[in-house]
Amino acid sequence: MMSPNQIPENRSPSRPATFRQTPLKVIHVFGNFMRIWSIYSVYRYLSQTGASVVLFIFSCLVPSSILFLLMQKPWKGRPLSNTQVVPSVINGGITALYFILWGKGLRSCGPLRIILAEYSGAVLGVLSAVLYGRRDRVWRKVGGLLAMLASFYFLSQGWASASQSPLYILSRLNYC
Asked: What span, in angstroms and rounded, lies between the C-alpha atoms of 12 and 48?
């Protein structure tokens, strides 16, 4: 007798697993594009107007906080215990400090280095998976880690801008 979760040998699943993941991949790629676009937009705004970073971050986070409060309605749920109040306030202060330092770093370093700094955690995650994760597909993980490290190296050398790329010389040569 078969369990209800097993698929008989003469039947295959109606949809492969990759087909079900396609909408999630599209959302992921679109979200990353929007994030990078917003970083460049914020950088352009802060560098052109000379607006205060603290005031800009505050004016962006207050409306979103109010919207979240109205959507989540935390006052209808269980109240925080006394042991949770202090860590919540500390977490809020650290998050506010992070956003302010992020904005000041964006203004002083530019969007490319901020993106590099944000995605450096992905390198640590892959490194952790290689060292401490399951031992299946190790070469894929090592290859991904090497590709990320190479891309970070090239971006840190300024190869994202056309004039710093080693291929820039080829575009300046006239093939007549």
From this structure: 58
Full-model pTM:
0.60
Q: Which domain holds residue 154?
A: 110-160
Both structure tokens of 174: 């006239």
Residue 86 lies inside a defined structural domain of this protein: no
Q: Give tens-digit pLDDT for 78-118.
A: 887 888 888 888 888 888 888 888 888 888 888 877 877 77
Distance CA 113, CA 153 (A): 12
